[in-house]
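Hey, I'm writing a tutorial for new members on how sequence and structure tokens pair up, and I'd like a real worked example in the thread rather than a made-up one. If someone can provide the structure for the chain below, I'll link this post from the tutorial.
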Amino acid sequence: MSRKLSSSQQELFQFLLLTQEKIQKPFGDIFKEKLSTMQFSTMSILKRYGLLTMGELAEKMNMPKQQMTQIVNKLVEIGFAVRHSDEHDRRIIRISTTQEGDALLRATAINFWTKRWRRSTRWASRKPSK
């Protein structure tokens, strides 16, 4: 059974493909030696929202807590995230990025935007073909 996509669905699909090609892939190329895409996305969410419980983080990442735990374990192991015990309820554990994790996010963003800027200036300085 084949179903035809509406024009808005087709446009959205094309937009997602373009996003993958123009943003996610270049970002992935920059940090692939250090982190997986999911680890980088997790760190970005932590940086944006601050201290989050595993449940809150899993919800924002739209994934099961068990899978999120594996990603966070690896980030803690390599020193890019840290767990904090709640002072009022020791059962609650919150996660945040470390200074090293923040530095990696900053360096990755700078590297990404520098490459984008170089590409755009090269393109803008090209002479039109006759």
